[in-house]
């Protein structure tokens, strides 16, 4: 794991709500495109959404107006933003081991989706000294 703190950005995704997932992936794509190292951590419902492939499925329950604008404006999906961030080589993804157990996902499936499958000791070490942290 690269632990250079420099301009590092840490994004903690917990919620499975699409707007939060999209915002987190947007931050990751923007920061990594600017050349900044980015660490994206998936917990609980965000991890479940990742595993179920829902980052590529925009959903805005009860807000058809937003769904229509999202589609007509051809906004990139959260998955497309995460893929763009990873393509820069500046974005590293992590899944919480406890969260993956709680949402019933096998370790081999997690390994296909993220760069590292880690517990809190590793998360705390990776984020030590990181000033810019986003919790969504």
Give a description of the structure:
- The chain has 136 residues and is of the alpha/beta class.
- 31% of the residues are buried.
- It is built from 7 helices and 5 strands.
- The mean pLDDT is 92.
- The protein has one domain (9-135): Hypothetical Protein Ychn, Chain: A (3-Layer(aba) Sandwich), CATH 3.40.1260.
- Helix 1 (18-33) packs parallel to helix 4 (78-87).
- Strands 4-3-2-1-5 form a 5-stranded parallel β-sheet, sandwiched between helices.
- It starts with 8 loop residues before the first strand and ends with a strand.
- Helix 1 links the parallel strand 1 and strand 2.
- It has helices at 18-33, 44-51, 64-72, 78-87, 97-102, 107-113, 120-126; strands at 9-13, 38-42, 91-96, 116-118, 132-135.
Name the strands of the widest sheet in spatial order: 4-3-2-1-5
Poorly predicted runs = none
List SSEs in N-to-C order.
EHEHHHEHHEHE
- CATH level 4 superfamily: DsrEFH-like
Through-space gap between termini: 23 Å
Structural class: alpha/beta
How many domains comprise the coordinates?
1
Helix content: 40-55%
Sheet with the most strands? Answer: 5 strands, parallel
